[in-house]
Amino acid sequence: MTRPGRPAGPAADTTAIVLTAALQLVLTEGAGALTPQRLHSITGVARTTIYRHWPAPKDFLAALIAVAPHPSPQTTGDPAADLHTEVDLLCDRLRDKPVAAFLRALVTASATDPECAELRQRYVLDLLAPFRAAARAAGIEDAALVEETAMTIVAPLLVDALLLDRAADRDRAHRAVADALSRTATRTA
Question: Average pLDDT for residues 80-109, to the nearest whole number?
């Protein structure tokens, strides 16, 4: 039996319109600009619809994270090659896609809202996931070593993008992959 009334969520086209505008605001003005009133004025979507589904900046950020999955390419069976591919993809995403700007917005928003801190952590963990998977595929079984391998590779890229406002150094990232694999090879041998 269906119940009359409003649907559980906004229509797909409404969601696309609002989230596209929200992403543009995040990238140009930061998370503080994500207010229902502001998005109503930009999109023309009814304020009540926006308030109902995205009442606070954290709700827009969470929705943007949910629609931004980045699938990894098919693995080749060569762990070193797979890690190098992941490094290239992350460098490209930090350069060409809004990953760095979105992370900056999450950092800023999390300074005042603990729930945004959880979103920031979730987003970074999503960025680390392919590196963890590639490390496990390389035969690294120890969870702490998997984490260290992923962080050794990714952390310098995030520091470049978030703190130093410079492009990710692809050559250094590839050296980090080689260093991480050689270190783990000596520890697991």
Answer: 84
Residues 158, 151: Cα–Cα separation, whole Å: 10
Retrieve residue 151's tokens: 């962080």
For 126, the 3-state DSSP assignment is helix
| H-type alpha helices, 30-112 | 36-43, 47-53, 57-66, 79-96, 99-110
Cα separations in angstroms, 11 against 128, 176, 178, 186:
32, 45, 47, 54
Q: What is the dihedral of CA 150, 172, 127, 139, to 10 degrees?
A: -30
pLDDT band at 4 (very low <50, low <70, confident <90, very high): low
Domains located in the chain, CATH noted: 12-66 (1.10.10.60), 79-188 (1.10.357.10)
State which amino acid sits at residue 178. Answer: A
Does the pTM of the predicted model rise above 0.85? no
Mapped onto helix, strand or coil, the DSSP state of residue 170 is: helix
Residue 76 has pLDDT above 90, yes or no: no
Distance CA 70, CA 93 (A): 10
